Amino acid sequence: MSKLCIQGDTRLVGDVKISGAKNAAVAILPATILVEGITIIENLPNINDVAILNEAIISMGAVTKFLDLHTLEIDATTIYKYSATEPCISKMRASYYLLGALLGRFKKAEVAMPGGCDFGGRPIDQHIKGFRALGANIEIEDNIIKINADRLIGTRIYLDMVSVGATINIMLAAVLAEGTTTIENAAKEPHIVDVANFLNKMGAKIIGAGTDVIRIKGVSKLHGGHYNIVPDQIEAGTFMLIAAATKGDICVRNIIPEHMDSLTSKLREIGVTLIEGDDYIRVIWKQKLTATQIITLPYPGFPTDLQPQMLVSLLQAQGVSTIVESIFDNRFQYVDELRKMGANITIDGTKASIEGVDTLYGANLVATDLRAGAAMIIAGLVAKGTTTIDNVRYIDRGYEDIEKKLTALGAQIFRID
Ligand code: EPU
Q1: Which terminal residue of the chain has fewer beta carbons within 10 Å of its beta carbon, N or C?
Q2: Which residues contact 265 (CB under 8 A, 6 or more apart)?
Q3: How far from each other are the two terminal CA atoms of the chain, in whole angstroms?
């Protein structure tokens, strides 16, 4: 088991290059199952979730080859298996995309129940409702979701809540269906658009991705091609918040600045200076941060995946801030760890009140999930003394070369195995 060890109280300065988006990559890899031909995916982040999905599609019969660290060639023509039930599959959330992709290609799928970060109940009823509406039968036996359909026929599907996973999964199941599928109340995150762009580049007919109504006209086949994954908006936001929290000056490069609008406007509001270019944002701390109120919302609202990192940054602000978590029931579990460092945070249901403190102190922490782990890194960079973070495997699931990128910005961080 690895731990990160951080010597804190350091101002981070310099340039950082953002990797490809995790939540696009973990959908596009399963989406390649739909392609009978060779796909080349570029700008893949080198993270554990990508490695697990690559293994999963290989075990189904695909032939894959890394052309370099971030470029994967996939020939899914040879896939013969429609099941993925290995224990590693049930440890990740995104394995649910194998359901939509296998259903689309084989009209059958058997996939272990997805796991992933624990934020309270994370049902997949909207995915199942969508598959059923397309004509599939679904059973859950021994924690394995079993789906089959004689035919998949396009229809109108209204999502009861805005769900990233359900929107993408229904798109995957519908691209090769007969007729037109309409997803209403669809999620609009940049990775939804990225998955739709990938599928369209391979011959799908999807319009409306990025709005709340997506229309998918079924086609008989997808062909191969090249695709370059969008930059990771959450990794970018994490580094922007590192600059704000450590009184630093970081130029976050290789990003799409419009994807960061909800964060940039909040950072400006709390007193951070930002300079935006075509593909970068420079974040400069010049004055004590001021308190604010935040509510997490589906895109283009403030992302739940930046909530823990924002909370740590607000510990550096003057006054009391509040964050309401409106996406997940239980995404403040990590706060107990921050309290060990002297943080003054009160939780009342889904609302956190965060009182700015003069000093945080290094402590021995345990990452409770991926983004909470990133928040603990920020806290460790700010704190006086040494912080250790256990359960680094969570952080490795979604951040590429985190120590290397931070070290280049002046952090004193190393890994103990
Ligand atoms: N929901 C349902 N039923 C469903 C689907 C969702 O009740 O069938 C609820 C969820 O419980 C939640 C809300 O709807 O309260 C939104 O969930 P959503 O489906 O959008 O989340 P997800 O697909 O499980 C993805 C990301 C998460 C990110 C959320 C929200 C992936 C693999 N995961 O999860 O990313 O927090 O969208 O943006 O794309 C992360 O990267 O750290 C991460 C957790």
Answers
A1: C
A2: none
A3: 6
251 catalytic? Reply is no
Token pair recorded at residue 301: 């609202």
Per-residue pLDDT for 117 more than 70? Answer: no
- Name the catalytic one among 5, 88, 117, 251: 117
The CATH number of the domain covering residues in 22-228 = 3.65.10.10
**Are 398 and 47 spatial neighbours (Cβ–Cβ below 8 Å)?**
yes
The fold of 3-19+231-416 is UDP-n-acetylglucosamine1-carboxyvinyl-transferase; Chain (3.65.10)
pLDDT digits (tens, 9 = 90+) for 274-284: 999 999 999 99
CA of 163 to the centre of ligand 1 (A): 6
Q: What is the pLDDT of residues 396-416, one digit of tens each?
A: 999 999 999 999 999 999 999
| Mutation to probe ligand 1, out of 140, 157, 161, 194 (largest number of atoms < 8 A from CB) | 161
Q: Is 115 in the pocket of ligand 1 (CB under 6 A)?
A: no
- Are 34 and 222 within 8 A, CB to CB? yes
Q: Which two tokens stand for residue 182?
A: 């309409």
pLDDT at 261: 97
Locate the domains of the chain by residue range. Answer: 3-19+231-416, 22-228
Question: Which pLDDT score is estimated for 278?
Answer: 97
Contact predicate 392/367, CB 8 Å: yes
Task: Quote the ligand 1 centre to 71 CA distance (angstroms).
Answer: 27
Please indicate whether residue 305, judged by its CB atom, sits closer than 6 Å to ligand 1: yes
Index of the ligand 1 atom closest to the CA of residue 168: 23
Ligand 1 atom with the smallest distance to the CA of 234 is: 41
Amino acid sitting at position 46:
N
Task: Find, among 363, 366, 370, 269, the residue nearest to 313 by Cα.
Answer: 269
Q: Is 144 exposed, middle or buried (0-12, 13-18, 19+ CB in 10 A)?
A: middle
Cα–Cα distance between 361 and 383 in angstroms, integer?
Answer: 5
pLDDT of residue 92: 83
Q: Tell me the per-residue pLDDT of 156-204, one tens digit each, with 9 for 90 and over.
A: 999 999 999 999 999 999 999 999 999 999 999 999 999 999 999 999 9
